[in-house]
Amino acid sequence: MATSTTRAPAGEEPPSPTRTTDAPRRRGALLHRLDVKGAPYAFVAPFFVVFAAFSFYPLVYTSWISLHRVELATLDVMEWVALDNYVELWGDERFWNALANTITIGVISTVPQLLMALGLAHLLNYRMRASLFFRVASLVPYATSVAAAALVFTMIFERDFGMINWALGTVGIDPVDWEADKWPAQVAISTIVIWRWTGYNALLYLAAMQAIPADRYEAASLDGASRWKQFTHVTVPGIRSTIVFTIVLSTIGATQLFGEPLIFGQGPNGVTGGADNQYQTLGLLLYEEGWKNYQMGRSATVAWAMFLLLVLVFVVQRLIKRLRSRTS
Amino acid sequence: MTTHSLPARTDTPDRTPATKPAGRRLLRQRAGRQHHAGPLAYVLLVIMAVLSIFPLYWTMVAASTDNTRVSQTPPPFLPGPNLFSNLARAWDEAAMGKAMINSLIVAGVIALSTVMFATLAGFAFAKLRFKGRNVLLMLVIGTMMVPPQLGVVPLFMMMSELGWSQQLPAVIFPTLVSAVGVFFMRQYLSEALPDELVEAGRVDGAHSLRIFWSIVLPVARPAMAVLFMITFVHAWNDFFWPFVVLDMTNPTVPVALTQLSAGYVRDQSLIMAGALLGTLPLLAMFVVFGRQIVSGIMAGAVKG
């Protein structure tokens, strides 16, 4: 794709004045100009073509589908229903339940994850032995797929023979039903997310910490600031934009949460999101509407609602930021 | 969670040439301020490392025993004798063999094409002048904020129209190139590739693709290797879309893993053997290339 417009003859027309005959030289100059002007667009084109075809177009078309009744078995039959899907979704208890679960699991998984990542990055920033080992070790969960991680944690959190309940038992705590009870289930699912992403975020923080100029720390310690003061007054402000970045990414990830709650406890042929939907997220609801209830129109409506949720979160974040900068 | 891939670095695009370290060095860690770690720091780090590794270690333990031993209390902490027979069973019975080959194809093709297209685009954004460059670059960054999950219904319809349902192209094509890849290569090349080299190529009369081939590629190689590995990891582990569009007759590894746990009689050590099998290739990669992957992720981070 990228090559077709740039296939000018290779180095045939060096701009040396010793060459004579005008016509080929002009042709060469024309090709050269075409190359200089056109090649950059050809080089960036593949990305935009792929994005337009497989991301942008589907995103826009989702809103169109959400105004129709479409069934999985007959995808080409679209019956116009205007806003019916949205009205139904608004009145659907499952939607509000999934929305609430998405938000609570999002908070339970994101906040501890980023705080722990911050602490871990601080530790990794020390000069020490085996620093490479610790960095790679903290990245090992990132190499594990959602599926594999969720399967292991399902067993670790198993009610009857799981390791967590066994460990709780040794200190005299009654076994917890990590799957059937709402909050334990949400905590367990969040644990999977936290396990997989803490080390990765820590490395991002570490990279930013290492870019903080050393003289800021020297100035702070000359002022008599303690290690903790240095951490809160130099380190954290110094990696601010990284923190914002990870919050944005984790928030997007949290609104899309799917694999962990799907696999946790049940498996794909079971109920999606627990017997009482106690940990059904919006991602699971989207899947359930489309591929279990065969209602693609409603599924698209859920997708659109997720998109709006994302937009809303960022608007709120912006507002908070603006309010805070006004008050300070 | 696919949006969680390689992060963007948002510092100012054009650094002064004086501070440019040579190509390979960019991907190594730089020294910052560092106190020496005390005993407490070591203790905490060891705990962290144990927490990170333990679930995988226990996957191996469970995969090496049998179903009854796994379900005993207290749970087993040491490996049993059945590791290889369980792995073999997972390979045969649970379609893991086919899934591994499929994942190898999918992740390999996606990683290759991402590296190629991202390097081309990254070079253009870093070193070529053209109208609308900044707007287009902002667009690339903006697309990172769009979670692919939202377009899944039309994408599914598109694939069934193309006749690609349950086929690997359905998984490969939507991720042929990624915004993070483009941005990563752009950041790398704008620092590592001196303008003079590109200019010299122009003076010699080389056309853009030739400059790309013989000047940019040699400089970009270390970053391309890192991008290849990180993209491979993401493609191998990608879950939502493959789960929607593929089925058990033709799964990738994560899709096959979901099926493992869906049976009526749950054979726990078989499940764990499958999970282990599906993770092993990436673990091997992390053991061998851990340093490069770590530094690649850190090089792509937002600084400041």
From TrEMBL, chain A:
<feature type="transmembrane region" description="Helical">
    <location>
        <begin position="41"/>
        <end position="60"/>
    </location>
</feature>
<dbReference type="InterPro" id="IPR051393">
    <property type="entry name" value="ABC_transporter_permease"/>
</dbReference>
<comment type="similarity">
    <text>Belongs to the binding-protein-dependent transport system permease family.</text>
</comment>
<feature type="region of interest" description="Disordered">
    <location>
        <begin position="1"/>
        <end position="24"/>
    </location>
</feature>
<keyword id="KW-1003">Cell membrane</keyword>
<protein>
    <submittedName>
        <fullName>Cellobiose transport system permease protein</fullName>
    </submittedName>
</protein>
<feature type="transmembrane region" description="Helical">
    <location>
        <begin position="98"/>
        <end position="120"/>
    </location>
</feature>
<keyword id="KW-0813">Transport</keyword>
<keyword id="KW-0472">Membrane</keyword>
<dbReference type="InterPro" id="IPR000515">
    <property type="entry name" value="MetI-like"/>
</dbReference>
<feature type="domain" description="ABC transmembrane type-1">
    <location>
        <begin position="99"/>
        <end position="320"/>
    </location>
</feature>
<keyword id="KW-1133">Transmembrane helix</keyword>
<dbReference type="GO" id="GO:0005886">
    <property type="term" value="C:plasma membrane"/>
</dbReference>
<dbReference type="InterPro" id="IPR035906">
    <property type="entry name" value="MetI-like_sf"/>
</dbReference>
<dbReference type="Pfam" id="PF00528">
    <property type="entry name" value="BPD_transp_1"/>
</dbReference>
<feature type="transmembrane region" description="Helical">
    <location>
        <begin position="301"/>
        <end position="320"/>
    </location>
</feature>
<dbReference type="GO" id="GO:0055085">
    <property type="term" value="P:transmembrane transport"/>
</dbReference>
<keyword id="KW-0812">Transmembrane</keyword>
<feature type="transmembrane region" description="Helical">
    <location>
        <begin position="132"/>
        <end position="157"/>
    </location>
</feature>
UniProtKB/TrEMBL annotation, chain B:
<keyword id="KW-0813">Transport</keyword>
<feature type="transmembrane region" description="Helical">
    <location>
        <begin position="40"/>
        <end position="58"/>
    </location>
</feature>
<dbReference type="GO" id="GO:0005886">
    <property type="term" value="C:plasma membrane"/>
</dbReference>
<feature type="transmembrane region" description="Helical">
    <location>
        <begin position="135"/>
        <end position="156"/>
    </location>
</feature>
<feature type="transmembrane region" description="Helical">
    <location>
        <begin position="99"/>
        <end position="123"/>
    </location>
</feature>
<dbReference type="InterPro" id="IPR000515">
    <property type="entry name" value="MetI-like"/>
</dbReference>
<keyword id="KW-1133">Transmembrane helix</keyword>
<dbReference type="Pfam" id="PF00528">
    <property type="entry name" value="BPD_transp_1"/>
</dbReference>
<dbReference type="GO" id="GO:0055085">
    <property type="term" value="P:transmembrane transport"/>
</dbReference>
<protein>
    <submittedName>
        <fullName>Cellobiose transport system permease protein</fullName>
    </submittedName>
</protein>
<dbReference type="InterPro" id="IPR035906">
    <property type="entry name" value="MetI-like_sf"/>
</dbReference>
<feature type="region of interest" description="Disordered">
    <location>
        <begin position="1"/>
        <end position="23"/>
    </location>
</feature>
<keyword id="KW-0472">Membrane</keyword>
<feature type="transmembrane region" description="Helical">
    <location>
        <begin position="270"/>
        <end position="289"/>
    </location>
</feature>
<feature type="transmembrane region" description="Helical">
    <location>
        <begin position="210"/>
        <end position="236"/>
    </location>
</feature>
<comment type="similarity">
    <text>Belongs to the binding-protein-dependent transport system permease family.</text>
</comment>
<keyword id="KW-0812">Transmembrane</keyword>
<keyword id="KW-1003">Cell membrane</keyword>
<feature type="transmembrane region" description="Helical">
    <location>
        <begin position="168"/>
        <end position="189"/>
    </location>
</feature>
<feature type="domain" description="ABC transmembrane type-1">
    <location>
        <begin position="100"/>
        <end position="289"/>
    </location>
</feature>
